[in-house]
Amino acid sequence: MRTEDLTGQLLVATPGLNEGVFERCVMLVLHHGDDGAQAVVLNKPVDATIDTVLDGWEEHVREPQVLFQGGPVQLDSALGVVGVIDPGREVDGVQQLFPGVGVVDLDTPAEQVMPHLTGVRIFAGYAGWVPGQLEGEIRNGSWYVVDRLPDDVFSDEPSTLWRRVLRRQPGRLAFVGLYPDDEDYN
């Protein structure tokens, strides 16, 4: 059973989680409920431009203007996370996750929603967990759960996000950000 709602929190991969897209990843939890959880990986850009998978949004994408791998589930689908100018205003086609950030329905015409947004980041796929699975992974030490800062979601330096998020944490967790890329150098 879930103890707290992690929606809007960051999941930061522990050094022991060193496989594929989850290695040193930072994830934004989009939904966490009794039905499971969904998140997107914030720091794994792929070598593909937006217009190769989604037409009409490329000029609105925040730097770096590339597609991000959101996770291993449904890689053939796209999901847009957006910055919202006025968090108190409801925008058709946008579901706000927390103040200033939402998920946009990419079938909505960009010109209809962009006047209300600060930008968008497009993700191919997402990460998903069945009920209780994410909680088990956290208990087993695969993920650190930390608060987000506004710049985390749209970082223009995704390659350094894992270290930066960890280094700002209190206590011992900050030292994990110094963990070497190659364990042999530890």
TrEMBL record:
Give the matching SUPFAM superfamilies.
Answer: VC0467-like (SSF143456)
| InterPro entries noted in UniProt | AlgH-like
Q: Name one Pfam family in it.
A: DUF179
Q: Name one GO cellular component term.
A: cytosol
- Source taxon at top rank: Bacteria
Family per similarity comment? Belongs to the UPF0301 (AlgH) family.
Record's PANTHER family? UNCHARACTERIZED PROTEIN YQGE (PTHR30327), UPF0301 PROTEIN YQGE (PTHR30327:SF1)
Query: What is this protein's record name?
Result: YqgE/AlgH family protein
